[in-house]
Amino acid sequence: MALALLGDHDASVSIVPDGQLIAATSFAVNRAVSLIRGGDPSGGARHVIRAVRVLPADYRQSATTRRAAQALDAAPVSAAGAPAVA
Predict the structure, then answer these.
(1) Does 73 reside within a domain?
(2) Cα separation of 1 and 54, whole Å?
(3) What's the number of domains the chain is made of?
(4) DSSP per residue over 30-75, as a string?
(5) 10 lies in a domain?
(6) pLDDT of 10-32, one tens digit each?
(7) What is the residue range of 16's domain?
């Protein structure tokens, strides 16, 4: 997780064992927050959407999806009208 927070998302995802859906999604959400805060709210929103869509339905009510929703809250108000953010 430290690698993801430092911005090295590719390296952080590479250490997640296959089948660890929650961990992989968590890294994807952190990447989305980085994109949003870095000035690409639409790209970050699309990243969140892709991350949650790959989760099986029974995983979508977890803390990970709540975190995904919080990631979208990081988008500036001015981006609220963008289709991916909306």
Answers:
(1) yes
(2) 20
(3) 1
(4) HHHHHHHHTT-HHHHHHHHHHHHHTS-GGGTTSHHHHHHHHHHHTS
(5) yes
(6) 545 555 556 667 777 888 888 88
(7) 2-79
For residue 79 the two structure tokens come to: 């981006």
**Token pair 């994807």: residue:** 28
What's the pTM value of the predicted model, to 2 decimals?
Answer: 0.70
Residue 84 resides in a domain: no
Identity of residue 84: A
pLDDT tens readout for residues 35-76: 888 899 999 999 888 888 877 887 777 777 788 888 888 888
| CB atoms inside a 10 Å sphere around CB 5 | 12
Smallest CA-to-CA distance from 21 within 71, 47, 59, 57 is with 59
- What CA–CA distance (Å, rounded) separates 77 from 65? 21
Decide if 44 contacts 79 (C-beta within 8 A).
no
